Every structure is written in structure tokens, then in C-alpha cells.
């Protein structure tokens, strides 16, 4: 078939609004997805942003004031204007969204960078984006100054976010000082008239697990339309069910533990939640037990998480039981697949919550599929249904188009798709094809338009001619009682071509048992291999063995950095025979 798509339609979206004009300036009566009776019947005095550490609350009036003040100073002191890039090198901060919207008010472009970058990595992003200014978290200031010097950027082009009562680093202007300076002056800027479909808002760098990271060119319209797609899918502000059964209700509280520099945190956790009139508790740095404490303290109802955080919720019941998490009504996970087994564990841990997966990419800005609004539970292992306005294709290895339940590469067309890779025509032509995005993910789509993402195409193993998805085996391994985390890679084998090798992180008790003796460690390895053998066909068994590691390397979005462990497996093979190899079964 030519394309899969839903029958749901989207409202007409204006093309002339910037992100702050749409999210901050439109009143309830003007909003595109709204039920006036439902909205006006609620006391909407909840704050927009809440600072996790201090409890400080910020409403729309203060947001607009601080955004104006910062924009005024960015114009007068730094001459930031149309298409100038400002790089945000910071963990989540209460002023992070203020900085975004201030830059956008001036027609500038925001590029978020991982604050854990080394100076060379940051320098690369400064150079690719041609950033004119850096706004940095104090903890990352040393790296920022080093990268700025290497880039030939004057250090007075660095602004620093404020951290509580601590003194700001000497010689650097703080964001709050810039806000005060701007508020003390008359308006010195006018907001440009834009075509939101082509005017860049963000340069969001892709994960970069292969090759150098690429700057994804995201226009204002993409962020706006993806929030609207989510709102239509979830029936935001509609009286589709009794109040207590609605998934999103104005006055709810969400937590922002996802980094705003990542597309999932930026579009869905920040902009979509605020559009839905849900207060957002801004968490500077993720810590599992601190997150549980914040859920209890602020009565958090909505969690947007990534699989490593989901695994922590499932694998640490003793820690979870210390906190009152009864307020949680919605849990969504995305950015990487959650296995069938993990999903079932999460359902048992939060029996009353709406729980499911979403799927998207930086290149599609952001979500393409979300678990159905019709059911409290997403289908275990499923990535959700196609959202309104999105078309999908399954392209088989021979180039033909797949129909229902056929497997191939998933291609996505969405009005939220990015424009391409910034100043990288070759990479753009490889991924963005006539409006479609090649995802690089192997998937199938069933007759209910549920999308099943099987694995990255390049990560599929060929064992004795059979295709084996590492994610399937990882899900099975994670259901073993001794295991906290796992990653499976293929290693060369003369007989089978490739065989699966599992890198495993044991839980605390099992790790202590394994440290007592090599015999006990071998018993645990054999137990994990038997667990897989008992649940999977013969060619999916862990013939490559089991290796214990202290942690699984992941990128900030939670994707497994499988390449690093594949390299480690290669080194293991050179240094000694892999342990506990299972005999080949004919």
C-alpha cells in the first residue's frame, strides 16, 4: 500500500506565528484545540513552571516579563537578531525556556548542547551552528570558556544561568542581571514577521552514534504542529470522558526530568505540557530517588520518561515503596523501545495509571506514534498508533512497499518533519526524501495502525541466516530476577555467521554473589543463558556468552550505545575465548 494514515484531521494551523507567539500569546478563546466550556469552567491559576529545588513558582505574567527583559538585553548588548544562533549549554533550569523564547522573540535560533560535553565536542557544535552567544550552566562554565577560546569567541559572549543564592562566577554576566537590565530599558526590538514553516527555531543535534552529530534544522511550525498533533490525539480540553478518567486535565502537574536540550524533553515535556495547561516541575539533574521524592512532594500526575528510568521504576521496588506515588496517572516512555516484559512490570507497579509508548525522532520533531487514547494501557511492545496528520510507509529490502504486518524500514511523512540537516546536503539527501524521513528503524504496522518498532536496521543480527533483533533478547534478559540492565550485540562466528553476546548489569544482591567466587559468577551466567533458552527459539540463544559490566553506555535520550559494546566484545574475542559459550544446536 502507498501509505498508512489515520482518519483524524488537524485544525488549520497559522503559518505566521513564532513559538512564543503561539504558546505564550494566544489566549484560551483563541487556542486551536480547546473546549471553551471545559476550560472556562476550571480555575486556571496553576503556575506554568515550578523550580524543583526551591518550590519557586512562575506564572505566565512573570514568564512574559522575564522573556521580554532578556530579549531586550540580547538585542542591545549582544545584537542578537534574525537567524543568529544562541547555544544553550546547560542542564534544565527554570530560565532555560525563558532563554529559548527570548531568542525566538528576536528571530534567532536556539541550539541546545549536552552540558556533559567535553570542550572538543562543544567546539564542534559552536562551529557547525556558528553560534554568536553561549548561555551556560555554572557547572559547565570551564568547558564553555575553553571551547569559546578555541572558537575565537570573546568570553563576554557568555551568559551564565543563576544558581540559587550562590554568587555568579566573577567576570560573567548572569541571566537574571540581563533580565533586569532589559526591563530597565524601553523596548529596543520588534518581533520579525515570519513564515513558521521555513523560519528556523532550533538546531537540535542528532545522537551521533554513527559519524559526527548533525544539526537538525527545525522550524517554528514543527514544534507547534507536533504539540497540536499530541493534543488532538489525547483529546486535550475535550469532554470525551468523565473528569476523573481524562488523561490530561488543566491543573495537573508534570515533572521535567528529561533534558530540554533533547528533542523529547524540548517539544513534548516542555512545550506540549505547557500547551495542555499542566504545571511543569523543572528538575535540574536526574536522580532516581530525588525524582520519587519530587513526585510525592509536588503530587506529580504526569511522567514523561525514557527506558532507563522505566527500568529503575521496575527493578527497585523497595526504593519505590518508600514514597507516595499515588498521584501518578500518566506514564509515557519514548526515545528507545521498551520491551514487552518491562512494560508488563510497569503495568503491575502502577495499576491505575495510563501507560504506554510513543515513537519519534529529532528528524520528525518529535512524536509520530502514541499509545491509544481508547485504552488505559498501551499494547506491550507496541510503539503506539500513528498520530493525526502523519503518514507512514514500510519499505521492504527490495524497495517495494509493505502492507499490514509486513516488515521493512519505517518511513514517516509528517507536517512536523524537520527541513533537513543544517548545511549538510549529502546527509539530507540520504534521510529526507521528497518530504519523507527514512527512520533507519525496522518496523511493521498492523491493521489497527499500531506501529511495532523491531530494531535499528543496522543492529539486526544475522544468525544462521535468521534475523535476530537485539531488543527482543534484551527484553527477555531483563525479566531475569538477577538482572538490572542488558545490551545484546552480535559477534562473528565461523559456524553461525553471528551469535548473540549479552552484556549484563546485575542487581546488587546478584553482583555480591558473583563476587564471592568465579563458580557463583558462572552459575549466574548459566542461569541467564538458560532463561533465554527456555523462552526463545534455538538460534536466538546467547551462544556468544554473558559478560558482566557495571553499566550499559547510553546517550542522553536513553538509546543504547551498542557500538561501544560491540567494540568491547571484539576486544574480548582477541584477548581470550568468550566464557560460557553454549554448544551449537543443529
TrEMBL record:
Residues 54-422 form the AMP-dependent synthetase/ligase domain. InterPro entries: AMP-bd_C, AMP-bd_C_sf, AMP-binding_CS, AMP-dep_synth/lig_dom, ANL_N_sf. Pfam families: AMP-binding, AMP-binding_C. It comes from the Eukaryota. GO terms for molecular function: CoA-ligase activity. SUPFAM superfamilies: Acetyl-CoA synthetase-like. Residues 472-559 form the AMP-binding enzyme C-terminal domain. This is Acetyl-CoA synthetase-like protein. It comes from Collybiopsis confluens.
Amino acid at each position: 500500500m502507498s501509505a498508512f494514515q489515520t482518519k483524524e484531521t488537524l485544525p488549520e494551523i497559522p503559518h505566521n506565528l513564532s513559538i512564543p507567539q503561539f504558546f505564550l500569546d494566544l489566549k484560551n478563546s483563541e487556542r486551536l484545540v480547546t473546549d471553551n466550556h471545559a476550560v472556562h469552567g476550571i480555575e486556571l491559576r496553576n503556575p506554568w513552571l515550578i523550580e524543583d529545588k526551591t518550590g519557586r513558582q512562575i506564572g505566565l505574567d512573570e514568564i512574559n516579563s522575564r522573556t521580554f527583559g532578556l530579549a531586550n538585553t540580547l538585542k542591545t548588548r549582544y545584537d542578537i537578531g534574525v537567524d543568529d544562533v544562541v547555544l544553550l549549554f546547560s542542564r534544565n533550569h527554570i530560565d532555560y525556556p525563558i532563554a529559548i523564547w527570548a531568542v525566538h522573540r528576536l528571530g534567532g535560533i536556539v541550539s541546545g548542547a549536552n552540558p556533559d560535553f567535553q570542550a572538543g565536542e562543544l567546539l564542534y557544535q559552536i562551529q557547525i551552528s556558528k553560534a554568536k552567544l553561549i548561555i551556560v550552566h555554572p557547572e559547565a562554565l570551564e568547558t564553555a570558556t575553553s571551547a569559546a577560546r578555541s572558537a575565537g569567541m570573546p568570553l563576554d559572549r557568555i551568559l551564565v544561568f543563576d544558581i540559587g543564592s550562590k554568587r555568579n562566577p566573577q567576570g560573567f554576566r548572569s541571566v537574571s542581571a540581563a533580565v533586569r537590565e532589559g526591563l530597565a530599558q524601553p523596548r529596543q526590538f520588534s518581533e520579525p514577521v515570519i513564515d513558521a514553516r521555513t523560519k528556523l527555531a532550533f538546531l537540535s543535534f542528532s545522537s551521533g552514534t554513527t559519524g559526527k552529530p548533525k544539526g537538525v534544522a527545525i522550524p517554528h511550525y514543527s514544534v507547534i504542529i507536533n504539540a497540536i498533533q499530541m493534543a488532538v490525539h489525547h483529546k486535550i480540553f475535550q469532554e470525551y470522558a468523565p473528569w476523573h478518567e481524562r488523561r490530561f486535565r488543566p491543573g495537573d502537574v508534570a515533572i521535567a526530568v528529561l533534558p530540554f536540550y533533547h528533542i523529547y524533553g524540548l517539544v513534548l515535556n516542555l512545550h506540549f505540557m505547557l500547551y495542555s495547561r499542566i504545571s511543569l516541575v523543572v528538575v535540574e539533574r536526574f536522580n532516581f530517588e530525588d525524582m520519587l521524592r519530587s513526585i510525592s512532594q509536588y503530587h506529580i500526575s504526569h511522567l514523561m520518561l525514557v527506558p532507563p528510568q522505566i527500568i529503575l521504576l521496575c527493578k527497585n521496588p523497595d526504593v519505590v515503596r518508600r514514597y507516595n506515588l499515588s498521584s501518578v496517572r500518566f506514564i509515557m516512555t519514548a526515545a528507545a523501545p521498551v520491551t514487552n516484559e518491562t512494560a508488563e512490570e510497569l503495568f503491575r507497579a502502577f495499576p491505575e495509571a495510563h501507560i504506554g509508548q510513543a515513537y519519534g525522532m529529532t528528524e520528525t520533531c518529535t512524536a509520530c506514534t502514541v499509545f491509544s487514547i481508547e485504552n488505559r494501557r498501551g499494547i506491550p511492545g507496541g510503539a503506539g498508533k500513528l498520530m493525526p496528520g502523519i503518514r507512514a510507509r514500510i519499505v521492504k529490502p527490495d524497495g517495494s512497499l509493505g502492507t499490514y504486518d509486513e516488515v521493512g524500514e519505517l518511513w514517516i511523512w509528517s507536517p512536523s518533519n524537520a527541513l533537513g540537516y543544517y548545511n549538510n546536503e549529502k546527509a539530507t539527501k540520504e534521510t529526507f526524501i521528497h518530504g519523507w524521513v527514512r527512520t533507519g528503524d525496522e518496523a511493521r504496522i498492523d491493521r489497527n495502525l499500531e506501529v511495532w518498532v523491531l530494531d535499528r536496521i543496522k543492529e539486526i543480527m544475522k544468525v544462521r541466516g535468521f534475523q535476530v533483533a537485539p531488543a527482543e533478547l534484551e527484553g527477555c534478559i531483563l525479566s531475569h530476577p538477577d538482572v538490572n540492565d542488558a545490551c545484546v550485540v552480535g559477534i562473528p562466528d565461523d559456524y553461525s555467521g553471528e551469535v548473540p553476546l549479552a552484556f549484563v548489569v546485575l542487581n546488587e544482591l546478584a553482583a555480591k554473589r558473583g563476587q564471592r567466587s568465579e563458580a557463583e559468577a558462572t552459575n549466574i551466567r548459566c542461569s541467564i543463558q538458560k532463561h533465554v533458552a527456555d523462552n526463545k527459539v534455538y538460534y536466538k540463544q546467547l551462544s556468544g556468552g554473558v559478560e558482566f559490566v557495571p553499566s550499559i553506555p547510553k546517550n542522553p535520550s536513553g538509546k543504547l550505545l551498542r557500538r561501544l559494546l560491540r567494540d568491547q566484545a571484539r576486544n574480548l574475542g582477541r584477548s581470550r575465548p568468550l566464557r560460557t559459550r553454549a554448544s551449537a544446536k543443529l
